[in-house]
Amino acid sequence: MSPGPAAAPVVAGIGTAFPGRMDQAELWSGFFTRHFGGRQQALAERIFANAGVTTRHGAVNPLLEDASSWPTSKRMQRYLSEALPLGKEAAASALAAAGVGAADIGLFVVCSCTGYATPGLDIVLARDLGLAPGAQRLFVGHMGCYAALPGLAAAGDFAAARGSAALLLCAELTSLHIQPPTADPQQIVAHALFSDGAAAAVVVPATAVPGYRVREVASITDTATADQMTWEVTDLGFRMGLSPKVPGVLAVHVGPMVTQLLEGHGCTVSDVDGWAIHPGGPRILAVVQEQLGLVDSQMAASRATLAEHGNCSSPTVLVILDALGRADPPPARVVALAFGPGLTLYAALLDRG
Fold first, then answer.
1. Which regions of the chain does DSSP assign to beta strands (E)?
2. Which of 14, 57, 254, 334 suits a disulfide with 274, CB 3.0-4.6 Å?
């Protein structure tokens, strides 16, 4: 997606919603210290302590109910009952922030990789939110942490081409997929980082309303490293595969990708005053900072989101963008970055009208 300057659609409103807050230290002492007992306990404790997470959110709190032995069918039943109110809250908040009525939405894009249901979130929420029967729907599944940006591209393209508002919703319940006790360091990292949440954005055609204009959304996929990030459906939920090699792959691609994106719009990294970088973990943030030559203040919003909310998968980059938009003053030009299976990097360039 690369609309011309006059045609750039606008993110007119963002809404977020989270289930119950959980304290990282309490999660470790109250549950995970036993879950990762034995020889891996010391390693797991270091991983939890150094994850960059202070609090996060869970529709299923392991301090209250241990879902690690649940069959996938039970997890999917819980997914729909928990994701519906969460998604409705985020979407309604975004519509209110944008001043757009649900009946005026022409396209509803829903991104989620943590559950399956038919009728799905897109259908049930379209009904519950009051979208028009003729509203189009697009469900994006299993893109993982970067899904918000291709979702934003689809919403923006629709708004620009059809002259009608689009609604994007990202909703994830990673807490449903806690795995049985394991000595696998990749599983320990995933359990230390991931969180639940929902975020929605209303995208409208080029207009004078305040908000971020979506200048371009770009991507690159390194298929040679596809096995380094996986999300496998098992009889006991979905299991994350997260190779320690992932930051190295990002180090190869993120600099050239961002440079090319910015050069296409006549600017450089120094012209960007807002960065919404998906906090896949502390190492990923450190690699991006190093490769782009950013200072700590430019990473603050991403690190603060990781500390307060954890890695919520696809909603996270929208949560950061919302935080940037609420700053006083908000940054004038923002680059959003997100990463996920493929191994895939997505970037979006936005600026304020």
1. 10-17, 21-23, 55-57, 105-112, 136-141, 165-173, 196-204, 212-221, 229-234, 237-242, 274-277, 333-340, 344-352
2. 334
Same domain, 230 and 196: no
Q: Which two tokens stand for residue 200?
A: 């929605």
List residues bridging with 165 in a β-sheet: 105
Copy the structure tokens of residue 18.
Answer: 């989270």
Query: Using 50, 70 and 90 to split pLDDT, how confident is the model at 297?
Result: very high
Partners of 219 in beta bridges: 346
Burial track 128-167 (b if 16+ CB lie within 10 A, e otherwise): ebebeeebbbbebeebbbbbbbbbbbbbbbbbbeeebbbb
Residues 152 and 263 in one domain: no
Report the alpha-carbon distance of residue 122 to residue 84 in Å, rounded.
10
The predicted structure's pLDDT at residue 207: 78
Q: Which region holds residue 202: left if phi is over 0, alpha if psi is between -120 and 50, else beta?
A: beta
Please say if the pLDDT value at position 5 is more than 80: no
Q: Which of 148, 172, 204 is the last residue of a domain?
A: 204
Distance of alpha carbon 212 from alpha carbon 214, whole angstroms: 6
- Across the range 118-145, mean pLDDT stands at 96
pLDDT tens digits along 60-90: 999 999 999 999 999 999 999 999 999 999 9
**Single-letter code of the amino acid located at 42:** A
Residue-by-residue DSSP string for 263-304: HTTT--GGG--EEEE--S-HHHHHHHHHHHT--HHHHHHHHH
Angle (nearest 5°) at CA 353 between 17 and 94: 20
Average pLDDT of the chain, as a whole number = 95
Cβ neighbours around 236 below 10 Å, total? 16
CATH number at residue 333: 3.40.47.10
* In the block, residue with structure tokens 């973990």: 281
Residue 176: pLDDT band (50, 70, 90) is very high
The number of folded domains in the chain is 2
The closest alpha carbon to 237, from 197, 187, 277, belongs to: 187
Distance CA 112, CA 123 (A): 14
**CA dist 30 → 26, 76, 296 (Å):** 6, 26, 33
- Residues tagged active-site: 145
